[in-house]
């Protein structure tokens, strides 16, 4: 499968280029699974000493399943590097994240690391946001406020939002690891994303949004021809 192979290529290259030991922030999603696999392999083969801090229940399970040392931000507040996926990146490494609903703790880990490194397959590498990712920008909201936040966003920034529903697995809306709801905001056009990120987070009821502006140090995109494209 060219997409899975592309994810693996990006993940392996990022771990090999950026992990020398110490405290590592582990992102969420399917690409980061390959990064944890590579990390576990290097711990086994090279005796690498790492402590892994998770960004979600999923990441925590991954760390435990691979027998890696589990840490947390209280014990390990300074991360050497955080490795995480993305839903889309523009040419300036502005990211949309949160497709998996873990954006809040992911952004915290990205902000605590000396280096924040993104790993993704070729479908995520765009020039402008919205070219390939069509599900909008995820926004984590306090459940009681989702409707008022929806209307505020529409008034201030235009575009429609949708409350993310669980689908077949569970009736009702998606509830995040932090006990909140997610609005997916379908924006229109290219914007000053730093301004949008700040505007969104100033709305009472918004916990965090999936725009990561000026945070990523480097991104590795696995390509369908087996190469890895790097952006920094
Ligand atoms: O939800 C997230 O932010 C994930 O990191 C997501 O953006 C990447 O998920 P994927 O690796 O499964 O594409």
Automatic annotation (TrEMBL):
GO BP terms in the entry: D-ribose metabolic process; pentose-phosphate shunt, non-oxidative branch
A Gene Ontology molecular function term of the record: ribose-5-phosphate isomerase activity
InterPro entries recorded: NagB/RpiA_transferase-like, Ribose5P_isomerase_typA_subgr, Ribose5P_isomerase_type_A
Catalytic activity: aldehydo-D-ribose 5-phosphate = D-ribulose 5-phosphate
Matching Pfam families: Rib_5-P_isom_A
EC top class, as a word: isomerase
Coiled-coil boundaries: none
Entry's family note: Belongs to the ribose 5-phosphate isomerase family.
The name this protein goes by in its record: ribose-5-phosphate isomerase
Gene: EOG090X0ACL
